[in-house]
Amino acid sequence: MLRHLLLLGTALGGAYAQTLLEALSKVPELSNFTTFYRNNEAFAALYFGNTSNYPVTFLAPSNNAFTAYYNQHQVSLFDVSPTDLLQIVQYHTLVSDLSRDNFTSSGGKGITAPTMLRDSLNNNRSTGVSLAAKYGGLERARGQVVFIQSAGQASSPNRFKLMSRQSSQPENAGVRSGLASIVSLETLDADQGTWDGGRFHIVDGLLTLPTTCEKTIRSAGLASLDSAVNRTSLWASVDSTKNITCLCPSNAAFQAAGNPDITLNISALQDVLLYHALSETAYSDFLTDGQEIKTLQNLTVRVRVEERDGNRTIWFNNARVIDANVLTHNGLAHVLDAVMVPLEQMNTTNTTASGTPSATPSSTATNTASSTAATSSAAALLAGMVRVDWVLWTFGASLLALI
């Protein structure tokens, strides 16, 4: 009996003993990538055959992804340079064996996943302790990340699509990469999406390599923030600084606060911008309610997290995140619905914004002021902004953050 069980186990184990090329060739919608692999087989065999990298999860571009790439760039993926080819493949390789359950059972948070993309041009950041602990250590987790999000998750108006061959009903989810781009993710069952080195799933577009914050902000259409950073000549510093999180008020938030990108003097505007720059990479799935994070001026910003009916909403001070995890080469950005009011001002004036809770931690979020009141308060704070040494005691409207 034991002998029969061992033979059965060997047979079942052998069902998954296949190279990535062999596994890919069984999926019709990956026929273009299968050809792409064969055309670059020496490189592919060396890269995907490196067992020291196992286990990994590869996000394989579908046939539609090849068409979309050509339509966008007027160049076929079959004709990309070796350097570009390597970066594309590296960014599509996640450094863990990730199944559909990993993408959908994160408690509404989504997951930040490191990749094999490690060159400094696309990855001018270091690995945080929490990310390293989750993905096997500092060295293994040091690559640039993607953010994967499933139905009903996170603070973003953009819903990605996650599909599974186990169900005919698509779920809202997908993969976020550079320049705020989003592609849909189709997960494969274990018997179809497994190979010697781990797993693979299907994406309907190529992931976009993260680039500078300046290019990312412009691509996202945050014109008011771009104008403010230009006026203060901070872009060079912002783009060269490692490990920052930019908290970026939207264009509407700038307008509601009295257009500080135009009306403030350079010194005051620079202080506002620096207050909106956190000195660490604060991916949304690692944020907790009541957490406090230092800005580049060593001031404090407080996180609020509310989870309700499968949805997760995040605030920084009084400002709600409306688009999370906009990845850059040196960190990330979160787009906000308001300019942040400093904690000192919130604690003394009970200032709140557009339905957000007060700054004082509590187990339940409370809505204590209307959007109109918050906007008026922010504008008033801006008008009275002063600078005392390095501490910004009052100001209330502005955007992004950096350096």
TrEMBL record:
One Pfam family this sequence matches: Fasciclin
UniProt-listed InterPro entries: Adhesion/Biosynth-related (IPR050904), FAS1_dom_sf (IPR036378), FAS1_domain (IPR000782)
Matching entries from PROSITE patterns are given as: FAS1 (PS50213)
Q: What is this protein called?
A: Uncharacterized protein
